[in-house]
Structure formats: C-alpha cells, structure tokens
Amino acid sequence: MLPLARPHATLGETVNKTLICFATAVMQAVHADAQHLILNFSEAMARAETHAYAVAISATAVDEAAAHRRQTRAGHLPTISFVEEVVRGDDPVAAFGTRLRQERFTAADFALDQLNRPEALSGARTVLEISQPLFTSGASLHTRRAARAAEAAAAAMAGRTREQVRLQAAAAYWGLALARQAGDVARAALGAARQHAAEAEAGWRAGTVSRSDRLATELRVAELESYHIDAEAHVMEAADALTLILGCDAGTSVTTTDSLTWQEETPQIAVDGVRPDVQALRWQRTAADHQARAARAASLPQIGAFARVAADARTPFGADGTSWMAGAALRWDLFSGFAVRGATDAARAQVRRLDAEERWLTARVEREIRQAQRALLAANQRVAVARAAVRHADEQLRVVQAESSQGISSVSNRLDAEVAWRSARLRHLQALHDVHLGMAHLIFAAGSMPVTELNK
User: Is the pTM of this model over 0.90?
Assistant: First the structure.
C-alpha cells in the first residue's frame, strides 16, 4: 500500500516554522556574541575595581562633590549679568523716568497735565552689571574649605567602596572555585558509586551479594546524582554572582583559573594605616567645622562692589540714552530671628556628632581586625585538620576497596568509607575557602592590601 501524499502546509504552519527559525537564529547569535572571561584572582580583583556598578556609583558621588566645590568659587569671583527689559505703560513715574533715561525729555513734559496723565509709551532698557564680593567676614572662605573637605570625604568613601567591592569579588571568586571543586568531588563520588553499584549488581547475580546491599548501592547512586545536580546548580549561581560584581552582562560566562590551595606562609597585612571610612569621617568633621564658621560669619558685615552700564531706547537693544553707575555696599544683618544662631549651633552639634562617630568607628575597626585575625587563624587550623582527615579517608577507602574485592568487607563498610571520603574532601575544600575568604576579610577590616601585593 502506497503512503498517503502529505497535503501542502497551511499558512499558519509556515508562519510558525518561520518564527521558530527566526528565534533559533536569534538565540544562536546571542550565544555567539556572549562574552567568555578567563580570569585569575588578581585579574578578577582589577576588573571589579574598574567595572563594578558600586564603583561607578561612588565615582558619581565624587563628581557631585567636586561640582559643589566649584560652585563655592562664586563667593570670591565676580558675577556678570545681562538684562534686556521691554515695557509699555502710562504709569506717571515710569513714563517720566523712561523719557528722562531715553534723553528725549523736553520742557513740554513739565506740564502738569502731561505729568499727571502721560500717554502710554514703550521703553527698552539694556543693562550690563558686574558684582564683586570684597569682604565676607570669612563666610566664602570657610564655605569653600568645607566643600573641599566634603569632596575629600567623598573620595575617601569611594576608596572604601572599592575595598568593599574587592571583598565581594573575592567572596564570589572563591565561592565559584569552591562550587566547581565541590562539583568535581561530586562527580568523582558519583563515578565511584556507579562502579560500586555495578559490582554489587554483578555480585547479586552471582549470589555473593544480598539484594538489600544491592539496593543500598543503587540508593546511594540516586542520592549522589541528586547531589551532583545541586552542585551544578551551585556552580551556575556562583558564576552569576561573580559576573554581577564584575559588572558583566547577564550572558557572560567566566572561568576561574586559580583553585583553592593552602599557602604555608600567610601574607602580612598592614594594619597600622587609617581606613578610608575613618578618613572620610575626619574629612566630614572638618567640613562641618568650616560650615559652623561660615554660618557664624553670616552675622558679620558683608561688603560688595558693583558696576552697571545701561542703555535706554524706544526699541530693544537701542541706545537713545546711556548711563553708568558704580558703587559699594555694606550689609550687616544685626538680627535675623536666631536663624544664624540656629545654623551655627546645628553645625557645631554636627561636629560633636562626627567626633563621637569617629571614636566609635575607630574602636570598631580595632575589634574587626582582631576578629578577622582570629577567624583566619581558625581557618588555617581547620585546613591542617582537614588535610589529615583527607589522608585518613583516602587510606580507609583504599583498604575497604581492597578488602571488598577479597570478599572480607561488607557493602555497608564500603558505602560508609565512600561517604567519609566525600565528607572529608568537602570539609577540606570548605576550610581552604574559609582561609581565602578570611584573608579577604582581614584586608577589608584593615583597609589595606597584603604587603607582598603593595610592594608590586
């Protein structure tokens, strides 16, 4: 019997196939354009300092502080303004002044009726004026110094942000290394469990292994397969965490070249410096002190000078009449309703608050350094214990496997030995991870870099 001929594809099927092909092409193009990074630890730290989102945000804070500092120059530099004003009306005073400034005032304009009820007229006035502060009783000087200190504080906090980014990048980098090496342990354990299960299956068929022991090996394979799936998912999560702190696109993949190892000699950490956040508090205290002085100066005399050139005409930008004026002015606010006093007291209170915060932060820094040192020491001790445990677990597994092949060891003993081997490996990896992360925490607590890296 001949096969039935397939009918022609409908329009809907054609459209669906076209959409599927288009989506497949787009996914392939996206995958082809995806960036792949291969980074060692130093390269990851350098990329985090330059590409992390937090670093970019802190840089904008420094730019804002610098812009505010430039604004304070107005207290020293002259201001120049240009005004073009066009008016029309029959206000008697305005009409009188407008005719006079336009230099077209005549004797007929002194008539009482003309003065009291002038006709509506138009006037245009062009004014160029320059104002220059001469003496501000220190207000502009202290305002500018406060802005400089605020900019320095923002720069110090940006430095602390970079240190925090380095800590986060270190945690993400070694977290990914731990996840991948833990995945290797999971694969090795799964392979050994599958081999054991195959041997138990063969022994059960030969009548040398009980059915319960064979089922126990199959159950262990299922458990390790589930663990292996979770380990692969942890690798992907850790990779996403690292690419996020590195400022990469979501589709970027990353490979870490440094593995979790143990250094016999721990790099020295400089702990006698001043942390950037402490420096920022000191600069903020300096800024608050200058702000208090500037607020106090607002109640003292202020002297300024000005010069003005004006041109008046019937049409805009004309010059029927011209005039100039120059002078100086003294301003002294004798009483401002306690506004100046309140601003001064608030600024002084801010100084005292920042003093207290600096003492508190300094005390916390000392304890954070000691805590990080204790944590790093404990992690190194755990590594030594874990290394010995790995050696014992390796030897125990080797002995049990040899005894199992000779039929003098039970299946449960081998399963227990495999569990102990996997647990010892994972504890060793976790201890190595804690050492690397402890070093990063100590660097962050001290606000410095290892001496060896500083010398580079």
Answer: no
